[in-house]
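Assemble and predict.
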Amino acid sequence: MTSAEQSSPQIRLTILLIVVACLFAALFARLWFLQVINAPNAQAAAADNGIRYIYTQAPRGEILDRNGNVLVGNKTEPVIDVTQQIAAADPAMVSRLAPLLGMTVPQLDQAINNPQYSPYAEVPVLPGATPQQILYIQENQALFPGVEATSMTERTYSAMGRAAANIVGYVGQISQAELAKLKPEGYQPGDLIGLAGVEASYENLLRGTPGVEKVQVNSQGDVLTTLSVTKPIPGDNIRLSIDGRVQLAAEAALTQGMTAARHNFDKVTGRDFEAPAASAVVEDPTNGQIIALATNPTYNPEEFVGGISEANYSALLNNPSDPLLDRTIQGQYAPGSTFKLVTAMAGLKYGLITPGSYFDDTGSIQIGTKQNPFTAHNDNGAAYGEIDLSQAITVSSDNFFNTIGLKLWYGKSTYGPDALQNVANEFGFGSPTGIALPDEAPGKIPTPASYIKDHKEDPSVFTQTQWYPGNSDQVAIGQDEVLVTPLQLANAYAAFANGGTLYTPQLVVDAETPAGKVVKTFAPETTRTIPIAPSWRAALLQGFEGVANSSDGTAAGVFRGSPLAAMDIAGKTGTAQVNKPRQDTSVFTSFAPANDPKYVVDAFVEDAGYGASVAAPVVREIYDSIFDLPLEPVTYSAAGRGGQN
Amino acid sequence: MTRAPARRRTELGLIFLVVILTGGLYALAGFGKAGDLPADMGPFLGIIFALLLVGHVAMRRLAPNADPILLPTAGLLNGIGYVFIARLSTHEARLQAVWTAVGMAAFVATLALVRRARDLERYRYTFAFLGIGLLLLPLVPGVGENINGARLWVHLGSLNFQPGEIAKLALAVFFSSALVERADLLSKATRRVGRFLVLDPRYLAPILAAWGLSLVIFLAENDLGSSFLFFALFIGLLWVSTGRTYYLGLGAGLFAIGSYLALNVIGHAQSRVQAWLNPWAHPSTSGYQIIQGEFAIAAGGLFGEGPGQSNASHIPEASTDLIFAVIADELGLMGAAAMLFAYLLMVGTGLRIAVRCERQFEKLLATGLSLILGVQTFVIVGGVTRLIPLTGVTLPFVSYGGSSLVANYILLAVLLRISHDTETPRPTDQIPELYGTGAASL
């Protein structure tokens, strides 16, 4: 303190000069850091700074049916776009614009500041703008800087497309998570991307190549010059193997079948059938092409156009009837007696039966141990007497097939513990078929090993500690824990129908440019070949033909005397029991014409009773449509003779 | 008298050098930008030489013994500033040329009107009222205007003017004279608070009142840079005049309180500090300017991209607040450092003039004017380089802006007047003769 007091002004001025010099030295040091030491980093960061890329999505390819009918097309819709950066700098413009668009200022601000878009991108704030609104903006463009009346393309759906919602799927804005993953492929915030069905699985073909405009921007983000322009390349049109007409017919038949079931009384549960859901598959057994995949309940894909609201989406998601579930590939059902194809093939393969051998069906068999015996009955205790394989199929004798299952189990030292399951796997059960649709379910073929494993993992659900003979008995008739998807069942019967080729179900025939030039064709893919001796096939075929055509066939009441009889339908009923209080699943699978199969058709109707009661009439109506015959409305077919399994 | 022509000859030589340097720079910028010599190369050289020559002749007549370095250095900075403004905007360049002429006129007028620096001392309260009045002007409804969140401007017809620039000078005069008047009282502790002897606040009251009032006005106008400049000026003068380190501590304390208040009251201040600490938090809004400035500075590297060759025009406020970033970009560290050296030279010369003054008033005034120059340069260059928060003060003689240019030429004239007074031999009989020639020329 004293030295300062004594210091002369001269010294203080010198100190001041030193201080100023030090401050300037600090500035120099800072400049040295910025211009020399840190310059490479900053220059790299700056390299991209003045350049912006503006992406334009290419028009999406259309989705056509096998005959070229448009299932999913495009339409251009007028829309009002606002550029975020310009709007942020001009609140007065936003408050002018809001009333014109019939929005409040906060609503418009929220729409403009959609975080999915970059500040340089135009954010669509009003899809479906009226011509008056567009005209007003165009005539008063000076009042609305950064606002553009333009058009955006949106998906449109034909009636056939709506009926095929589960196949074609829908598009929506890309999510943050997907964006992070797909950034290298040039996806931008706000881009539309296939989220379900073919839209999702063939995204790479439908999407096309986005256009890129490389521009230089100034400090305000205004575009100064365009450096380069790459035009978008439209996506390819995709032609499905689906026949839109058959798809429509299948959807209609399912609806009729469910309605019919609901008006009939279930003696087992003492209430009307509920029939909450149903599905049907039509496949070409000669090449594995899928002609129809119908599921009910379903959704209207038009709900997703222009972005589905949060409320509407959660309503779909939380709907107890689960309309977003494609039951043809995601529904897993006990196949019931339709599984007897597998058991018969196993019996023949391991020599337990021959096409000519007979079995005495007394209506029940004893299984289990002496201490713990139980009896397996045919449905309604029917006794079919001396029957061969064909007759066992036609009348759907449980005991015939129970016995095969038991014999395979008791002979496990010879045949192996999974003899029956291996044949099921050969026919494609227990794993996804590989159809090009997202989230296909695998179904389940239980084995002694799976019982032990499941119990170990979750003893509260899988209470049984190990495999018993009764499990073999039940698996043999498509019960126990056996689960199949309608597509798996159709595909297995297609393999039988074509003599043993198990195809990977094919959905897309080819991809074409918008001008119609085919750029890619899809060939049938074989999963495996199943050896089926001609004598085996003949015996089984006779049995399946009998189901629909013989007087004692389980579905004879549905097909005999109908115009379809001429088409030589072969089929198999199934009545799958499920845990109470659910009612039996009505299953029918078929192929036609029996001696030269061109179509495989199956149907599953939940909580609807006998296979012959609902599923078979549904299949019948689908055939009517395929063969251009007069449609026979689906009516509930009452159970005839005992064994309607 | 013998030294006077020598000094003026030095000045004239330096002016030639300045014309060559700025002319060369202007030509290079023209080649860099358009690949050709600027169309107005001739008029440019003519006008810059003519303007500096007017200043030089006025010096010969009115302040022949004054320092020879300040005018050419200011001319160099002014010329470099003009080259870069012209490179950014021809419209602004045209206005800046007009303002340069006005500034030079103000320079000559100041030299002519202020015959002796000590005369200013007598009008201290006039300057106090003038300063505060000028500061208040932008707050008058209908006259004032907000630009970039700060209310600093008055518009006279189509011209915008920042009266605060002139107010700084007026208040510097007032502080210097008021402090000289009370220097004895202020340097003696008369009151005991605990163990410390402190000043009787009664003596400080008028100064504190003026300082507080002008500070409040600056803050009301959201001019943070000027508030700090003003504050530093006041504390610096107080310390230089009294020699009491106590004032530096008091100043640091008041600065802390003032900063705290500013941060909590002025939203503008908060966003400035946030943009300083982390411009990347909002790279396209509040951090945009500073990021663009840093990119430009980094692009310059050691030797720069060359005049007219960068794309620095995309920096917001490139010709005013961020002109130093453009210069650092195109002239590199070498050019930027040379600019800093030019400012340091001016501040050093100013302080040397203060050292040589015998009278307290002139000594304080020269110190104050030098401080204004130095602190203002530090505040804006520090802000642009993100050493301190960026506030909108001009880079003296370089930034686009008329009021700043005029004020700085007046400041220069006063400094040179003090310099002349100090260097002129005392015999009073010589003075009337000198004044006689000057008066005749008016």
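Chain A touches chain B at residues 1, 4-7, 9-10, 12-14, 16-17, 20-21, 23-24, 26-28, 30-32, 34-36, 38-39, 41-43, 45-46, 49-50, 85, 88, 119, 217-221 (CB under 8 Å).
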